[in-house]
Every structure is written in C-alpha cells, then in structure tokens.
C-alpha cells in the first residue's frame, strides 16, 4: 500500500508574493497542504486555495499540442519585444489561453520565475512540453540577451517541424485508411452478402465454379472464426505497440524498413533530412556550440537510424573532424547535395544559413512528394478496391451466368 500512486488533484490558488502583489495560479498536488508548502518555498503567502472540480477540472484534461507550444513561443516573443516584463507577459498569455491545461502550465512557469528561477529553468521543470532543444535555445537567448529573437526562432522552428510531421502523417495515413476500408468492405461482403448467395447455389444441383467455391469457403471461415481473425489483428497491433515502446532493436528495424519502402521511404528520408538541417540551423543560429547542438539535432530527426548516425557524427565532430566529412561517411543517409551545402556553410562561416536553405529544399521536396503520392494513389486505390469488390461479385454471379448450361 505504501507504494500505491498518490492521486493528484487540481487546485486553484491565490496569494501574495514578496512584494505584496496578488498572484494567482493552478497546480496539481495530492493535497492542499502540499500546495501551501510549494507556494511558501516560492516566496508566496497563500490566501486562498480551492479544489477545482466539475467542468473546469475536466477542461484541464485538454491535450497540450505542439502547435500550442509554438503559439505560446510566438506570443511570448511578441510581448517581450513590446517591452512587457516577463512575469506580466506570461500572465497575459495565460489569461488569453482557452486551453485550461495550457493556462495551468503557463501559470506554473510564471510561479517558478516569481520564486527566483530563470525562464529556461522554469521550462526545464516541464520536460513533457519543453524538450532539451527548447530549453537550450531559451537558455542561449537569456545568456545573449536576445530572448525575444530566440523565442521567435523557436516558434518558427516548431511551426516548420509540425508542418513536416503533418505531411508525413498524411503520406502514411492515406494508404493505411484505404487498406482498412478495403479490409472492412471485404469482411462485410464475406460475412453478410456471400451467405445469401450460398443458399441459392445449393438449389442449382451442379458443381460450383472453382473461384466461387473458394469464395464460399472463405466466407464460411470468416463466419466461423471472425473472433479469431479480429483477435489476431488486435494481438498483432498490441505486440507491435509493446515492442515499439520497449525495444530499441525493434524501433531500429522498423525505421530501417520504413526507409526502404517504395515512395513512402523517400518521403520519410527527406523529412528526416529536413528536420536534421532545420534543427541544426536553429541551434547554430542561437550560438549553441556544434557538439552540444548535435545531441538535440539527433533527437529531432524522428528516425532512430538517423538518430544513431548523428550521435556517431557528434563523436567525430568532438574530436575535431568537420561536420560535412562526418556526413560524407554516411552517404546513404545524407545525399551529396546536403553534404556539399554543409561544407560550403562550414567554410564560409554561415552554417546556420546553409542549413536553413537545405531544410527549405527538403521541406519543399516532401510537400511535392506527398501531393504527388496522393495523385498517384487515387487510381491505384480505385483499382485495388475494384479488384476486391469486383472479384467477389464476379465469384457470386459466375454460377448464375452458367445456369443456362445447367438447364
């Protein structure tokens, strides 16, 4: 019982800070006493603490999406650029946010800053929403006095990254949905439609065509073992999800296989290249040392094959080797055009600009390939569905077409 997880509750609090100003916020905690202790540690004297229940508490469960973080970065950059103090800017952004979870997150960050933390330290306390890349960039902005510029760069980076993810999802979702629809339509025909014809066939008094017999037998199998088929599919999905979470070898094999797929593999490859160069450009422009930046760059590629390659490149760069030479050793992942552009950037001292240009090139490539994929798949999908449905219908009507011979 001692190890049982303690359930957190959302509390809304109000209090006075060290300067006597009234501050408000929200916080998850097991009890009101924990909230009081947390606030006092931050130099806030709580005057009212209330448990949040009902609709407001349910609204808090709205998911915080990456686009919410991008908007938050853009709004905060605008506020700071207008000369609004950081704590006040956070308060304004929080009050104007309709997402209760996002509002709670921003107010929690504000409370940490009022307690003496820097913005990067406050963000680091929420790793689920602000990754190392985000925190490192904000820290670089604080050190250089260019927080507004860095927040603006982060917002642009997040927007570009989400646009690429959306394109990749579109490329993967379209064929997946069509495959699912084809499977469902085939299942409905085999389970409900074919048995209706089977009773008619039994009155013919003649052998059924081989194709029709095959479809009828398949229909009987589906009717008898539908639960096993669905259970097997569910089991396969569950096993894949389990190993996807727990096994690095499985994820490595999955990502390697995805990169080798026709058409889809090229889209995923170019998307990883776009993320690699976009992150590299953003980190380098922020003044983050290349070796330090490479770790964040590796995590941003979205593919474990690329991630491991970038980490090995990081080791080479740490020993003094130039980045483009490290990339050249992995020409299967990094095309010659990308390597040459990075080489020019290193030689001219404009690695951030050259990386940004490479990112723009590959982002445009992904856009074009996804659009072309949709155009290419539409007739292919119609053909596949036509063959499946048309084949089943033909199998059912073959005995009727041959009825004249039987008579």
Write down the Rg.
Answer: 29 Å
Major β-sheet annotation: 3 strands, antiparallel
> Shape, please?
extended
> What count of helical segments does DSSP give?
17
Order of helices and strands: EEHEHHHHHHHHHHHHHHHH
What does the average pLDDT come to? 83
Measured distance between first and last alpha carbons? 79 Å
Order the strands across the largest sheet as they lie in space: 2-1-3
Based on helices, strands and strand pairing, what is the structural class?
mainly alpha
The percent range for helix content is over 70%
Question: How would you describe this structure to a colleague?
Answer:
It is built from 17 helices and 3 strands. The protein is mainly alpha-helical and 407 residues long. It has a 3-stranded antiparallel sheet with strand order 2-1-3. Helix 3 crosses helix 4 and helix 4 packs antiparallel against helix 5. It is extended.
Q: What would a concise description of this structure say?
A:
This protein has 407 residues and is mainly α. It has helices at residues 32-41, 54-59, 66-81, 86-95, 100-114, 119-124, 132-144, 147-202, 210-246, 248-260, 264-285, 290-300, 304-318, 323-328, 336-348, 351-401, 403-406; strands at 9-16, 22-29, 45-51. It has a 3-stranded antiparallel sheet with strand order 2-1-3.
